[in-house]
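To the wet lab folks,

You asked to see what we're planning to order before we commit. Fair enough. Below is the target structure as tokens, and below that is the sequence we designed to fit it. If anything looks off to you, flag it before the synthesis order goes out.
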């Protein structure tokens, strides 16, 4: 039995996101950082989540809230929908993904457009737009 990485790659956790989360290597692309952040949610590694979020957009007040939420969820899988920019040579990138999970016995998904920026040579998460909410708001505004 292998220790597959939760991000959905075919690599082991230690070869993939584990190496990034543990600081053994840097995320080379925005998508790698996004996958490692998903894995950090699965592993409830809030320190890594805080460390890879741009300082201007993070709050220590949310740290315990994030931890409680991540612990309450059974993560199922991650599906990358699209990637724009975010290569080793870019300074910004956008990753759209769906993360599927079970919370309180209900099948749910996080559908997000995540924004990343290279700061001091390292990819950082800067903000996310909840596309489930965006679509819901559009649906209600059209009535």
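Sequence we intend to order:
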């Amino acid at each position: 039995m292998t220790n597959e990485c939760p991000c959905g790659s075919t690599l082991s956790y230690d070869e993939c996101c584990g190496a990034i989360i543990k600081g053994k290597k840097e995320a080379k692309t925005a998508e790698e950082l996004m996958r490692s952040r998903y894995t950090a949610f699965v592993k409830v590694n809030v320190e890594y989540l805080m460390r890879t979020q741009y300082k201007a957009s993070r709050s220590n007040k949310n740290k315990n809230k994030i931890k409680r939420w991540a612990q309450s969820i059974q993560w199922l899988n991650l599906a990358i929908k699209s990637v724009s920019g975010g290569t080793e040579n870019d300074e910004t990138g956008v990753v759209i993904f769906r993360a599927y999970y079970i919370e309180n016995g209900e099948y749910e998904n996080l559908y997000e457009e995540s924004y990343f920026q290279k700061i001091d040579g390292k990819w950082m998460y800067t903000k996310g737009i909840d596309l489930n909410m965006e679509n819901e708001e559009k649906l209600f505004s059209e009535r």
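Structural context that might help your review: Residues 30-42 form the longest helix (13 residues). Helices lie at 17-21, 30-42, 46-51, 61-71, 131-141.

Thanks,
Computational group
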